[in-house]
Amino acid sequence: MLFPKKVKFRKWQRTRENPKKTKKATRGTKLSFGSFGLISENSGEIKTNQIEAARKAMSHFVQKSGKIWIRIFANRSITAKPPEVGMGKGKGDPVGFVARVRPGKIIFEIDGLDEKKSQEALRKAGSKLPVKTKIISR
Predict the structure, then answer these.
(1) C-beta of residue 47 within 8 angstroms of C-beta of residue 97
(2) With 80 as the cut, is the pLDDT of residue 105 above it?
C-alpha cells in the first residue's frame, strides 16, 4: 500500500471543513499524462486501501494494455483510539494514511485504450472510492 517513507508530523490535527463551502482544487485539475481521467466532484479523504482497491480494479480490467497514473498520494496520517478507552485520555495512535481531495482534483489518468474501455475502467475505479467522481477526456 502507499504510505510515505517519512513524515514531518506523526499526528495531524483535524480540520473543520464546511461541505457546502468547500474550496475547489487549484492544482492537479488538468490532464497531464493520459487521455482520460477520473476527477472528484466533492471533497473527502481517500484511504490508502481505497486507492489500492481502485488501482487493482483498473489494472485487472485493463490487463496488459494501457497505462495508468495515480495522481494523488496519501501523506496525511489518521489516528484511532483502541476500544474501551475513555474520553480525555489523549490522542490515539496513527493507524493509516489518507489523501485529502477537493472538488476538481484528478485522481487517476489512463491512456492507451479506446474510449469505451477507458471509461469502463475509470467507472470501476470510481465505485471503489468514497467521493463522487466524474470521467473527463482531453
Answers:
(1) yes
(2) yes
Adjacent-strand bridge partners of 87: none
Cell numbers standing for residue 27: 492544482
Backbone φ, ψ for residue 21 (5° rounding): -115, 25
| Phi and psi torsions of 29, nearest 5° | -110, -5
Q: How far apart are CA 89 and CA 87, in angstroms?
A: 6
- pLDDT 10s digits, 13-25: 988 877 677 889 9
Domain 27-82+91-137, CATH among 3.90.1170.10, 1.10.460.10, 3.55.40.10, 1.10.10.10: 3.90.1170.10
Handedness of CA 106, 112, 116, 120 (dihedral sign): negative
Give the model's pLDDT for residue 1. Answer: 72
